[in-house]
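Z., the sequence and structure:
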Amino acid sequence: MGMGMDWTMITLPLWVLAGIVSFYFSLGNARVWTSIAVGFFLILVAEILPTAIDFLPGLEIPQVQAMTSIVGTIAILVMSHGFQEYYVFSRTLELEGNKTLVYLGTLGVVLCSAAFIWINITPDERTLEVINIVENTNWVFLSLINIDLIRKIYVNIQDSPISKGFAAFIFVFAFIFLWKGSELYINVYNLDVLAEQGQYLGRYQISMYCKEIGNLLAGLSVGGTFLYLAKLLR
């Protein structure tokens, strides 16, 4: 438990900064960036605050626990959609929709998900575990897809001054892959339960270190990337 608290003291301020910077970035820049920045902001809301501040009111409610994982899934889906849009934009210079629709659309999906959770059976421990596995699976595989997509975008815009800033997102998703991949490994093999029984302690500890280091580096790189891009786009 002590190890978790030590990491949280470092990761929480980094993610709060990254969340604020990414949301501020989405307000101040072109529509093409909105989905990407909103997705990163949602990580702060869904992933970091509930795990770091365990005394937040309502966190013991199973529906709220389910929603943190669901909003985490929405975060990776929204930002992946944003990178797909940017790829099309980098090829065609065409863009559909406006910023307000992105904000309203994301909020609508969150509210519909919340309604679905609240009208259904109260999630038990197994249900929450499954929802969490679905979230981590989305993060792991979409991180790999986004790394390839960002590489393609970089090739298309490499003569642009923002190309280096964009390439930094490759590192962001590599760190997220480490973070979420470690979580998924613990989920699937039930390593936390096995470790409590005195089994596979080494694997569990290595997985936890990889998870915390990935989380830390992801928070650091997200904030740094958006600050760098803001400077390049000025």
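Residues 118 and 225 are 37 Å apart (CA to CA). Residues 2-232 form a domain with the Rhopdopsin 7-helix transmembrane proteins fold (CATH 1.20.1070.10).

Let me know what you think.
H.
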